[in-house]
């Protein structure tokens, strides 16, 4: 199989972690006889530095016309002062929106080897952590009107949260379909005791749930969910929620699996051309030091093989290799368990490649 992968290394640790994911994809491609070609483009802070625009037109075109996109991370303090419409993060939002990537899947799964790295009580961890946050990605407060005005001698800022029924309906279907392939349970998370968007959210998801009588369905308020994720994460299978709640809950969920550096994500819309990225950011505090954990990005590559290219066996091979390297005790510096063998970002990538053989 020949596939053209658009690559955005981005900023901070982005180039370090994406380089490792490309090495692993090359290795799997060679093993199974596929040709993955990488088309590197600029987006984010590095694109601002190179040409003044966070998302040059040719970069967006490449995302739209390739077979899928692999992204590291964008942003960093260097660009905090740029115009809000040209911030590095706007590039990411622009790509998600232009590609119509409404369904963002963020699996929070604890590798059993990393039990001791979870900050949760061992008894809670022993019950297992394996759920997925299905985050709506191109609606809500991220994409409503934003404004800052000066009134009566002070500034006033507005961010509007908007959801239409069809936007909720399609992400709800993604959640129920996902649950059917897992343990058959959906928890819809909202703030229906306060927000109109959440009341509509709950009404629509409840309606869609009737089409899936085989899936257990319930709803939960977002503040309670934040607490339940640390109290007993084993109760969750699929969490479906709006854009900003999903952003926040997925960072929380990542940490209980040992490190934010472990968690991959897929973003898909109506076609197979999706975007794959770790859920973390550009980690400016450790950038350029070969310290970052590349596993979230490597596993994002595995998700790409599965969801965009239907290469299930090749995808599973990457997951197996990651698991074997963890079994052997290798850890990057972010994983805080005792007795691990500390390795750098590039050593972790090399170890995973050698495991693929
Ligand atoms: N998808 C993206 O491109 C994305 C996502 C989140 C944040 N950001 C941007 O990244 C910048 C930094 O944001 P932040 O500091 O709030 O969040 P962050 O996720 O970059 O970092 C938070 C903490 O986690 C650590 N960390 C993150 N990824 C790691 C990895 N792979 N290995 C080891 N440690 C890791 C960092 O060192 C830091 O201590 C901001 O500009 C933000 O807007 C981008
Ligand atoms: C950088 C930012 C725009 C982005 C988001 O909020 O979606 C990030 O936090 C993420 O989780 O992918
Ligand atoms: Mg985030």
TrEMBL record:
Keyword hit for Magnesium: yes
Domain Isopropylmalate dehydrogenase-like positions: 4-352
Positions bearing the site annotation: Important for catalysis: 142, 191
InterPro entries the record matches: IsoCit/isopropylmalate_DH_CS, IsoPropMal-DH-like_dom, Isopropylmalate_DH
Database matches in SUPFAM superfamilies: Isocitrate/Isopropylmalate dehydrogenase-like
Assembly description: Homodimer.
Family: Belongs to the isocitrate and isopropylmalate dehydrogenases family. LeuB type 1 subfamily.
Protein residues bound to Mg(2+): 223, 247, 251
Record protein name field: 3-isopropylmalate dehydrogenase
EC number, UniProt record: 1.1.1.85
MF GO annotations: 3-isopropylmalate dehydrogenase activity; magnesium ion binding; NAD binding
GO cellular component annotations of the record: cytosol
Catalytic activity: (2R,3S)-3-isopropylmalate + NAD(+) = 4-methyl-2-oxopentanoate + CO2 + NADH
GO BP, one annotated term: L-leucine biosynthetic process
Keyword annotations from UniProtKB, A to Z: Amino-acid biosynthesis, Branched-chain amino acid biosynthesis, Cytoplasm, Leucine biosynthesis, Magnesium, Manganese, Metal-binding, NAD, Oxidoreductase
One Pfam family recorded for the sequence: Iso_dh
NCBIfam families found in the cross-reference section: leuB
Cofactor stoichiometry and binding remark: Binds 1 Mg(2+) or Mn(2+) ion per subunit.
Required cofactor names: Mn(2+); Mg(2+)
List of residues binding NAD(+): 76-89, 281-293
UniProt: substrate binding residues: 96, 106, 135, 223
Purpose of the protein: Catalyzes the oxidation of 3-carboxy-2-hydroxy-4-methylpentanoate (3-isopropylmalate) to 3-carboxy-4-methyl-2-oxopentanoate. The product decarboxylates to 4-methyl-2 oxopentanoate.
């Amino acid at each position: 199989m020949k596939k053209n992968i658009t690559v955005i290394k981005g900023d901070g640790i982005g180039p370090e972690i994406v380089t490792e994911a490309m090495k692993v994809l090359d290795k799997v491609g060679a093993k199974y006889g596929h040709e993955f070609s990488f088309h590197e483009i600029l987006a984010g802070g590095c694109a601002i530095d190179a040409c003044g625009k966070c998302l040059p037109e040719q970069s967006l075109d490449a995302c739209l016309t390739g077979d899928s996109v692999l992204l590291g991370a964008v942003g960093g303090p260097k660009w905090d002062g740029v115009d809000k419409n040209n911030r590095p993060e706007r590039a990411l939002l622009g790509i998600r929106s232009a590609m119509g990537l409404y369904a963002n899947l963020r699996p929070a799964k604890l590798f059993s080897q990393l039990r001791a790295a979870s900050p949760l009580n061992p008894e809670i961890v022993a019950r297992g952590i394996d759920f997925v946050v299905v985050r709506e990605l191109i609606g809500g407060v991220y994409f409503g009107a934003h404004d800052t005005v000066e009134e009566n001698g002070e500034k006033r800022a507005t961010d509007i949260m908007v959801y239409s029924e069809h936007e909720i309906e399609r992400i709800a279907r993604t959640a129920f379909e996902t649950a059917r392939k897992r343990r058959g349970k959906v928890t819809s998370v909202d703030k229906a005791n306060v927000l109109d968007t959440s009341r509509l959210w709950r009404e629509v998801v409840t309606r869609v749930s009737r089409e899936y009588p085989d899936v257990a369905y319930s709803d939960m308020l977002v503040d309670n969910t934040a607490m339940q994720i640390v109290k007993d994460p084993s109760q969750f299978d699929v969490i479906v929620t709006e854009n900003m709640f999903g952003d926040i809950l997925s960072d929380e969920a990542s940490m209980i699996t040992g490190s934010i550096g472990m968690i991959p994500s897929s973003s898909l819309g109506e076609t197979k051309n999706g975007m794959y990225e770790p859920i973390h950011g550009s980690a400016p505090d450790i950038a350029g030091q070969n310290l970052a954990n590349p596993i979230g990005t490597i596993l994002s590559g595995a998700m790409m093989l599965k969801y965009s290219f239907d290469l299930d066996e090749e995808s599973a091979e990457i997951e197996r290799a990651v698991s074997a390297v963890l079994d052997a005790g290798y850890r990057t510096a972010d994983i805080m368990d005792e007795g691990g063998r500390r390795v750098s970002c590039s050593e972790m990538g090399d170890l995973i490649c050698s495991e693929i053989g």
